[in-house]
């Protein structure tokens, strides 16, 4: 492309300080250096984690920055040493990098690549950022920063995808879908014939429902206070639906009565402390597999054991 090797001026949503609105600014995006890739972002989603870091991150040294980590785009240019990717490739930026060669990448019990953290530091420290605005370096959030028309990432932070894939849909694979699906299949390890409860039917929750179905769960109970989400959850594999607002009893009691004592797997996809406490006190007591997927916005404590 004609922009290869040159600084690109483009628009980005810049977070200048915590707990303040993002500002659309013109930024400068430097060319990729060795083992880096510059991507034209075509579609990006807004994840709750982006909002959390904007509203709850009080570390002023993290600002200014460009948020965003759930996106899809097209390779614009590559830096020296990059051989696996070419300009024009459709890709998804990855905030958890994978070299696919180290002992951690080859170990099914972890996805924390031992080579990744060096590349993260290169991108997430302001002085190493490829972004500049009004003479100031902008921190690259998780090394991806997809709230910009162009971004530069490590070659370890890219997944090449099918050229026919619709970028406005597959961008969700960058975080929400793999988070929920992976929690059910890889973390909770849902078993065939089991009974599962999924709390929250947003993107992560629906992906968790899909993961439970793929793992062979017999009953998938979707829990949400918005009944409009139930039909969509059914498409993804939910078999039953519970709206806590329809019951006077605690949701733990409702599920206990529905299942004859409790579910086999519980996946929390809301990030609501009250939901976590009510759910965890009940399910841990019954020695159930329990998986908290989302980030709570408060500190909380739970009873880890109580007599049945």
What does this protein structure show overall?
- There is one protein chain.
- The strands form 3 sheets. Strands 8-7-2-1-4-9 form a 6-stranded mixed β-sheet, with no helix packed on it. Strands 10-3-5-6-11 form a 5-stranded antiparallel β-sheet. The protein has a 5-stranded parallel β-sheet with strand order 14-13-12-15-16, with helices on both faces.
- It has helices at 48-56, 116-124, 167-170, 176-187, 203-214, 230-236, 251-259, 273-285, and strands spanning 8-15, 23-29, 36-44, 65-66, 71-78, 90-93, 131-133, 136-137, 139-140, 150-154, 158-160, 195-199, 219-223, 240-242, 265-268, 289-292.
- The model is unreliable at 280-289 and 295-308 (pLDDT under 50).
- The protein is globular and about 65 Å long.
- The protein is built from 8 helices and 16 strands.
- A hairpin with a 7-residue loop joins strand 1 (8-15) and strand 2 (23-29).
- It has 2 domains: 8-174, Quinone Oxidoreductase, Chain A, domain 1 (Alpha-Beta Complex); 177-292, Rossmann fold (3-Layer(aba) Sandwich).
- Helix 4 runs parallel beside helix 5 (203-214).
- The chain is α/β, with parallel strands linked by helices.
């Amino acid at each position: 492309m004609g922009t290869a090797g040159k600084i690109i001026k483009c628009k980005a949503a810049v977070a200048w300080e915590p707990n303040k609105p993002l500002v659309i600014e013109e930024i400068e995006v430097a060319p990729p250096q060795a083992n880096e890739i510059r991507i034209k972002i075509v579609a990006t989603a807004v994840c709750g984690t982006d909002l959390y870091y904007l509203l709850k991150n009080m570390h002023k040294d993290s600002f200014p920055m460009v948020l965003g980590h759930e996106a899809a785009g097209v390779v614009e240019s590559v830096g020296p040493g990059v051989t696996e990717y070419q300009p024009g490739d459709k890709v998804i930026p990855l905030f958890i990098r994978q070299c696919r060669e180290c002992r951690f990448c080859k170990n099914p019990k972890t996805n924390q690549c031992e080579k990744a953290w060096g590349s993260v530091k290169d991108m997430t420290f302001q002085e190493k950022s490829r972004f500049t605005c009004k003479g100031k370096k902008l921190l690259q959030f998780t090394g991806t920063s997809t709230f910009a028309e162009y971004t530069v990432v490590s070659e370890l932070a890219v997944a090449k995808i099918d050229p026919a894939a619709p970028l406005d849909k597959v961008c969700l694979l960058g975080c929400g879908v793999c988070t929920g699906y992976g929690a059910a299949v890889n973390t909770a390890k849902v078993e065939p014939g089991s009974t599962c409860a999924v709390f929250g039917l947003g993107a992560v929750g629906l992906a968790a429902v899909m993961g439970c179905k793929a793992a062979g769960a017999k009953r998938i109970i979707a829990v949400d206070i918005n009944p409009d989400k139930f039909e969509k959850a059914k498409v993804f594999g939910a078999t039953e639906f519970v709206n806590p607002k329809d019951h006077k009893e605690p949701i733990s009691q409702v599920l206990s009565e529905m299942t004859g004592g409790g579910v086999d797997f519980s996946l929390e996809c809301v990030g609501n402390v009250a939901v976590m406490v009510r759910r965890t006190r009940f399910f841990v007591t019954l020695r159930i597999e329990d998986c908290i997927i989302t980030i709570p916005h408060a500190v909380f404590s739970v009873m880890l054991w109580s007599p049945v």
